[in-house]
């Protein structure tokens, strides 16, 4: 109990002096995100198209550069998100060179609804922000309606790396797509959320998920030919799926608004009856038009 209280106090202290972006009152033109999820989010607010494939080396979507580069480029505001270090420490460094900071919560796709409105006000893109916010809310309501009667939740596992033995916890932002379609992540980490965990082959065999998804092409090929995986029911029933990654991973890496598209893609495979009437092509077209500025 004492450890839990200390964690709560530490968490509160780290965030105490960092303003939420919804409380930021100034208007800015030069804004940048601390990490890829924020920069992908920010890019969608501008009427510019996304590349066919988002490269991690692309500066528009990468982590923030050095403080010196930020100052040289005249950055006015840095949007912070899920920092493993203290927000306060970075905020103080930036404040010394007259760069503001604010915190944006983007853990869940539901957070995006208000996040767009908050940033839209700051960068004078309120109409655009409202359009995206309304779209996300509508799609989430749609997903809730078509999954509300699902009682027997399908068990699912997200296989990472060449071995497939690295995965993400059930409360992680990296596996929220499973929650959105009412699938049950077999990797449970208790109250303490972890981004990734490493399993043994024995662990995976004991969990024996009904469905396996992976974003690793090598593992996807290997799982069907390597005999050590043959006892997994997902392999026996050929319910192993490779996650689309153009222009960005539909599930995570990094977590983003692509979770909406990922929910329809995965739902069509996991719950064929509930998602039978969902026209994925039309859903994808609408998604790309609104969020990726694609005609």
From TrEMBL:
One Pfam family of this chain: Peripla_BP_2
GO BP: cellular response to iron ion
Source species, domain of life: Bacteria
Record-annotated Fe/B12 periplasmic-binding domain positions: 17-274
InterPro entries reported for this sequence: ABC_Transporter_SBP (IPR050902), ABC_transptr_periplasmic_BD (IPR002491)
Protein name: Fe/B12 periplasmic-binding domain-containing protein
Native organism: Malaciobacter halophilus
């Amino acid at each position: 109990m004492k450890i839990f209280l200390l964690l709560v106090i530490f968490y509160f202290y780290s965030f105490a002096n960092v303003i939420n972006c919804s409380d930021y009152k100034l208007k800015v033109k030069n804004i940048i995100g601390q990490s890829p999820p924020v920069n992908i989010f920010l890019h969608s607010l501008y009427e510019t198209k996304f590349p066919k494939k988002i490269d991690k080396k692309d500066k528009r979507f990468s982590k923030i550069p050095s403080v010196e580069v930020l100052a040289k480029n005249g950055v006015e505001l840095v949007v912070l998100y899920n920092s493993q270090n203290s927000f306060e420490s970075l905020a103080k460094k930036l404040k010394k060179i007259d760069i503001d900071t604010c915190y944006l919560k983007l853990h869940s796709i539901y957070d995006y609804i208000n996040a767009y409105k908050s940033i839209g006000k700051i960068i004078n893109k309120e109409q655009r922000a409202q359009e995206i916010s309304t779209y996300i809310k509508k799609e989430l309501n749609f997903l809730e309606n078509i999954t509300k009667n699902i009682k027997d939740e399908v068990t699912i596992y997200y296989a990472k790396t060449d071995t497939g033995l690295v995965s993400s916890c059930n409360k992680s932002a990296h596996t929220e797509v499973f929650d959105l379609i009412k699938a049950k992540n077999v990797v449970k980490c208790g109250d303490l959320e972890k981004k990734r965990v490493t399993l043994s082959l024995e662990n995976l065999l004991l969990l024996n998920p009904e469905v396996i998804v992976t974003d690793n092409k090598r593992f996807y090929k290997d799982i069907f030919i390597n005999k050590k995986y043959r006892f997994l029911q997902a392999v026996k029933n050929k319910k192993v799926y490779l996650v689309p990654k153009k222009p960005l991973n539909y599930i995570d890496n990094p977590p983003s608004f692509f979770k909406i598209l990922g929910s329809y893609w995965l739902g069509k495979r996991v719950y064929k009856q509930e998602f039978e009437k969902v026209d994925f092509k039309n859903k994808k077209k609408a998604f790309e038009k609104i969020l990726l500025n694609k005609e």
